[in-house]
Amino acid sequence: MSEAPAMRELLGEDAPSNWGKWGPDDELGCLNYLDASEVLRGIRHVRSGEVFTLQIQMGRTEPPGDPLWPGRSPMERRNVLDESSWDKPDAPQYPGGLHYSDDTAQIFLQGSTQYDALGHLWYDGKLWNGYDARTTVGQMKKASVLPIAEKGVVGRGVLIDMARHRGKPWLEKGETFDHTDLEAAAQAQGVTIEPHDILCIRTGWLKYWYQLTDREEFYKDFNEPGLTYSRELVEWFQQREIPNLVTDTIANEVTYEPNTGVALPLHCALMRNLGVALTEIAWLDDLADACAADGRWSFLYVAAPLKIVGGTGAPVNPVAIR
Ligand code: UVW
């Protein structure tokens, strides 16, 4: 198999951690930073009243379909009642001649724009805040998506457009950047990444996906572009008290850390160890165009993931208001 080091070896025995910071029962992690004053700070960044919905469409049938992590399947929406159903002899009858349509849907909770539960990924048998990984068996009993959904996520969002900063429509497979690149892009955009900002990063990767007609191309040597692990980057997140990382990729970070080949170490370093909430597969292109047009890169960010009991994640349609 792989010669990659164990996650613990890469991140270090003394990896930066926020376990215990909000008590032994915490299931919100860095979202605890988003208090009422942060809501008001976000509201102060609304100027023009433009609204951007950041979810992608679910269940598209035309190619290339829904962007998915390998092994996940697209939403299966099935119509179980339509106008043809009401002619059938066993169809229910409602006074007044009422007819209606009904659908069911089978979905991967991580199969669209979504919030990961803080306990969605782990290593060494422990989830966020030190919860035992066996609490995931059957249904997540700790650090599921439900506490995030009950709270809601509201604050000042800031968008860093890495693709635009690098003069490309989208970053390439496996292309990386780190906190120093984020700071440089922010400076070029004329915006500051402030403590407690909801950090949104555009790579253009969804734009790349939607212009593909051949899904094979996407999954060949699958390696998304994105943030890459370093201890300094993790400390940067911890010191800035970033509550939530939002990107337009399926997994918010380069798939394989380039030096070691370890898969998704930032999920572990940021989400499992620090409690940073992760929002993935967000459509940021229209928002980015509007921000670039008038040079305002901060906004009110509002997201309410679905309240799925024990969910490993939940679909969401975040809203950015400028
Ligand atoms: C995995 O679950 C592997 O990734 P994500 O958090 O992107 O869904």
TrEMBL record:
Region of interest (Disordered), ranges: 1-21
GO function terms (MF aspect): arylformamidase activity
Name of the protein in question: Cyclase family protein
PANTHER family assigned: CYCLASE, PTHR34861
One annotated GO biological process: L-tryptophan catabolic process to kynurenine
Pfam families on file: Cyclase
Gene3D superfamilies per record: Putative cyclase (3.50.30.50)
Stored SUPFAM superfamilies: Putative cyclase (SSF102198)
